[in-house]
Design a protein that fits this description.
Elements (H helix, E strand, L loop, with lengths): L3 H16 L1 H21 L1 E4 L7 E7 L7 H12 L2 E8 L4 H8 L4 E5 L4 H15 L6 E6 L2 E2 L8 H7 L4 E8 L4 H7 L9 E3 L3 E5 H4 L2 H9 L6 H18 L4 E6 H8 L4 H9 L6 H10 L6 H17 L2 H4 L1 H8 L4 E2 L4 H15 L8 H14 L3
Parallel strand pairs: 2-3, 2-5, 3-4, 7-10
Antiparallel strand pairs: 1-4, 5-9, 6-11, 7-8, 7-9
Organism: Rhodobacter viridis
Protein name: Rhamnan synthesis protein F
InterPro entries: RgpF
């Protein structure tokens, strides 16, 4: 007999799908209207041109005063030879427009429709309208503080990765029970690995390809976050993989686990010291392991604990210090989830102890403010 909670879950899922039908219907008309009028509604401010053929489409949503960290990101892009097409979801304040115009090749202000991938799409089409074919293109958004070191070489390392499409983090799509059931009937049963969309890099060969162009031409933007993740972040990786493009990233879970297998107890102890948990069982396990040192069996237990957590939770959020020491990704997520809140607390602990080096004063100050806000102070 099917448990009652499963029946309830499936009924709720079905109800959510049915309730979403009117929204899908209305958004179809919204997309058609937006497509007809978008270039009349998008304002463009030109800034200084830089030599070179590297471009970045930087999507932001900042309805209030412009955070200093946005300018830090823009300066970093300039320092790395990128001409920035800044796309703002919503109208900017005059002061912000002026500050950004001094650092960006173009500033586009568009209606707040479609989240990050809606803005990415307009940025891609804008560059195509200008007849540009970037040697390197970066798509990034302001859901991360990046970079936490002004002289970080992480962007150069991303450019140098051999894969066609690269970024900061390749993540595994977590399978709930229904997705696991569907996977049983797929020919390819491997876990789906996707590139997290807050930073995506590609080269001219990908930019000029028909699959890349077709993806953006047919992309259905939505004001639903769930649809944006499905069609955007996940959909982009799926479409490009189907077209035969390879993916790579500075950080992958399996690479983290492989590195942890080679680390000794001092590294593991510091990994646990700055570990973040949203699960009480994992937290208790870490506290118990931290009480003793020097025993080889205990060292293996510490290693096993880190690997167990890495297999079940986000590596970069759970082990901020270790991922920075090993991979030097130099970014922090702004996500409001409990794990990310605790990760930011641990990140600041490591910075204040001198165990992480930071050279982004505005971003660091914003993180401190966010941590105080999350704590209710």
């Amino acid at each position: 007999m099917v448990p009652g909670w499963k029946v309830k879950r499936e009924l709720l899922r079905l109800g959510a799908q049915i309730s979403g039908l009117p929204r899908r219907f209305m958004e179809k008309f919204a997309r058609v209207h937006y497509e007809r009028t978008r270039w009349d509604k998008i304002t463009v401010t030109e800034g200084p041109a830089l030599p070179g053929e590297k471009y970045a489409i930087f999507l932001i949503y900042q309805p209030g005063p412009l955070p200093g960290s946005i300018l830090e990101t823009c300066r970093y892009l300039v320092a790395n030879g990128y001409q920035t097409v800044l796309v703002s979801n919503g109208t900017l304040r005059e002061e912000a427009r002026s500050e950004l115009g001094a650092l960006c090749r173009y500033v586009l202000e568009r209606p707040n429709f479609g989240y990050d991938f809606g803005g990415y799409r307009d940025g891609v089409h804008f560059l195509q309208q200008q007849g540009l074919s970037p040697a390197h293109l970066v798509l990034l958004n302001d859901s991360i503080w990046f970079p936490m070191q002004a002289t970080s070489d992480v962007l150069a390392r991303i450019e140098a990765l051999p894969a066609d499409i690269t970024g900061l983090l390749l993540n595994l799509r977590r399978n709930g029970k229904m997705r696991k059931l569907h996977a049983m009937f797929r020919a390819d049963k491997r876990p789906f690995e996707f590139l997290e969309s807050y930073l995506i890099h590609l080269r001219r060969s990908t930019w000029e390809s028909a699959p890349f162009r077709d993806y953006w031409d047919t992309y259905k933007q939505s004001s639903s976050k769930a649809f944006t993740v499905k069609r955007g972040e996940l959909g982009f990786s799926k479409a490009m993989r189907r077209a035969g493009f390879s993916f790579g990233a500075v950080l992958r879970r399996d690479d983290f686990i492989a590195a942890i297998r080679e680390k000794g107890e001092p590294f593991l102890d510091k990994t646990l010291r700055y570990a973040a948990y949203s699960d009480e069982a994992f937290l208790k396990g870490a506290m118990d392991l931290a009480k003793s040192h020097g025993d080889e069996t205990l060292c293996e237990r510490k290693r096993a604990h880190v690997i167990k957590v890495a297999l079940r939770r986000r590596v970069n959020a759970s082990f901020c210090w270790a991922t920075e020491e090993i991979f030097g990704t130099h970014f922090i997520k702004k996500h409001n989830g409990v794990l990310f809140q605790r990760s930011r607390e641990k990140y600041l602990e490591a910075v204040d102890a001198g165990d992480l080096q930071v050279d982004a004063p505005a971003a660091l100050d914003e993180i401190r403010q966010r941590v105080r806000r999350d704590r209710g102070r």
